[in-house]
Amino acid sequence: MIPGHALVLVCVLPKARDLEIARVLGWYRIPLRNAPKVISVDHLAFYQPASFGKSGGRIHFSAKVRGHELTTRKELLRDEPDHPHANEEYFKIQIGPLEPLQTPILPGAWKRFSFFYTTGDYINKATTLVDLAIRSEERMVLWKTLRERAARHSEYRVDLPEEPIDQGVLMALLGLVNMPTTNGGITK
After folding, report:
1. Which domains, from first to last, does the chain contain?
2. Alpha-carbon distance 78 to 23, whole Å?
3. How far, CA to CA in Å, does 71 sit from each of 74, 103, 176?
4. Mind listing the pLDDT tens digit for each residue in 167-182?
5. pLDDT per position as a tens digit, 24-71
6. What is the model's pTM?
7. CA–centroid distance for 10 within its chain
8. Closest by alpha carbon to 38, among 88, 89, 91, 96?
């Protein structure tokens, strides 16, 4: 079980191979060009899309984050040196063992997203992705936590305002509303 106060980044495992990399090698990759503003989180929760077949369409695993580094895709996936994105920068998130959730979290109305933040409390109680959305006064706590994490880590050059921005924009940043994007963002 994830500690209730933990900051959690919900992310997508595109293919079964990515789950095996996380399980066996203990890391997850995020392209720098698509990375969320803050990657210094306590845990990752992994959404398995329809490409996983019968075990797809759910969050079934989480893992504690142990650290991260910036590298290239070519260094991460040495068996794909000619991949079109081989020279692009990626965050390599080092993780602990995969932990199954007590109850898998199903997509509900959500079908696609890239990343969004939530907390351990929400993960531990959720049955659908919509249940992970922080919409109450707790979003101020989440906002403050994200600001503090961004300020503590020099690799982040993020200028987050002191107070939360417009609720609609904040909801889009946190992955809580349908916002069309060009980089594989949230769609319902």
Report:
1. 7-173 (2.30.130.30)
2. 18
3. 8, 34, 30
4. 455 455 554 444 444 4
5. 999 999 999 988 888 889 999 999 998 899 989 999 999 999 999 999
6. 0.77
7. 3
8. 91
> What DSSP assignment string belongs to 94-115?
EE---EEEEEEEB-TT--B-SE
CB distance 11 to 45 below 8 Å = yes
Asked whether the beta carbons of 130 and 116 are under 8 A apart, the reply is no
Those residues with Cβ within 8 angstroms of residue 162's Cβ, 6 or more apart along the chain or in another chain: 147
Q: What is the DSSP pairing of strand 58-72 with strand 43-48?
A: antiparallel
Q: Which residue type, as a one-letter code, is found at position 64?
A: K
- Return the beta strands (E) in the chain as ranges: 7-12, 27-31, 43-48, 58-72, 89-95, 99-105, 115-119
59: helix, coil or strand? strand
Residues contacting residue 92 through CB under 8 Å, at least 6 positions apart: 27, 28, 29, 68, 69, 70, 71, 76
